[in-house]
Design brief:
By secondary structure, the protein is α+β, with helices and mostly antiparallel strands. Helix content is 45%, strand content 13%. It contains 12 helices and 7 strands.
Length: 336
């Protein structure tokens, strides 16, 4: 059964990052950028900041198992020919400002391969700052600190691709991605698979032609979840070895460095298991048995909203449609 009201409640109260936390993230990013921009040496080199990753893509989720939630943003810098031999100077310039300014100098902070990071109190949140340059041809480039080389990126292009795929899926793709990220973190399943890979692989399974044959293919959240994950499972099972995953924005960058052959095999195996579990919960015609199967996947947060607790437990399902395998369009599960 679909339990669309359960799914909406699950998204709203368990999976989605709260408005308060999103506003906190936005405020802290503004403050960090203000400190960087105000620096006499670094400030003139900075042109603008832009959100990156799950934040602008609207796939950011509430952290699980005591983990911090994170937000990434990029800072556009002037390209300096004198730094061509040591590209680490871009990240170092950002790090040096934070390292000597309060309150960041007293907070956990440091440098990673492509960013400078700041951790906030109690590990509740961390922010990654990614320096980048825009060349005369309009292309974006970030620095790989470990290899001292430029890497092509297209953050806006990826976000636009995500919007297009989400629209093709009836605005269910982002919800499916958030749920699968939650499943990964809640169950500690396929933990070696970075969010950028999961987002790309799920997004690439959305195909407009499927709605021609079945207008309800992505008709509501549980139906979209069933079909997108099942289609991903089919795609993975046809590829026993690690495939090449390219940036769908068309930047020409490969995401292969994000995982290993062993990580891929584990991900492939776990998606196969989860696809079967999702199908079993969706196809189950007994109300209570279906709820228990969904809860086995998602935990106790998958439950009826309080406002509908007294309306009768069959208020949001169509047992005939589920029993026959047909997908009945319902918009009661839409969230986020």
């Amino acid at each position: 059964m679909r339990h669309t009201d359960y799914f909406k409640n699950f998204l709203d109260n368990t999976v989605n990052l709260s408005k308060f936390k999103l506003e906190t993230l936005s405020g802290r990013v503004d403050t960090i950028y203000g400190v960087l921009k105000a620096d006499a040496s670094l400030g003139p080199l900075l042109k603008k900041k832009i959100p990156q990753g799950s934040w602008p893509q609207k796939t950011i989720i509430n952290p699980q198992n005591g983990k911090a939630f994170d937000g990434d943003f990029m800072v556009q810098m002037e390209e300096d020919p004198e730094w061509a031999d040591d590209l680490r100077k871009y990240g170092n310039a950002v790090y040096d400002v934070l390292h000597r300014k309060s309150p960041y100098k007293d907070m956990p902070h440091g440098r990673k391969c492509r960013c400078v990071y700041v951790n906030y109190a109690d590990n509740a949140m961390h922010v990654d700052i990614v320096p980048f340059v825009v060349r005369s041809d309009g292309t974006q480039w970030i620095v790989n600190r470990d290899d001292n080389k430029w890497e092509r990126t297209d953050t806006e292009g990826f976000t636009n691709w995500m919007k297009k795929q989400d629209k093709a899926a009836g605005h269910r793709l982002r919800e499916v991605i958030r749920i699968m990220k939650f499943l990964r973190d809640h169950k500690n399943s396929f933990t070696g698979t970075k969010s950028i890979l999961l987002t790309t692989l799920l997004g690439e399974r959305v195909e407009e032609w499927r709605t021609v044959a079945d207008s309800g293919y992505y008709g509501d959240l549980p139906t979209a979840l069933l079909h997108i994950v099942s289609d991903l499972d089919d795609w993975l099972q046809a590829r026993p070895g690690k495939p090449v995953i390219m940036d769908p924005s068309g930047s020409g960058t490969s995401f292969d460095h994000r995982w290993t052959p062993e990580t891929y095999v584990y991900f492939r195996e776990r998606i196969n298991v989860h696809a079967a579990e999702i199908k079993a919960a969706y196809k189950e015609t007994d109300f209570d048995a279906s709820v228990k199967k969904w809860q086995a996947l998602f935990g106790d947060g998958f439950k009826a909203p309080k406002s509908s607790a007294s309306t009768g437990k069959y208020s949001s399902v169509s047992t005939g449609a589920v029993a026959s395998g047909a997908a009945t369009v319902s918009h009661s599960g839409r969230a986020g």
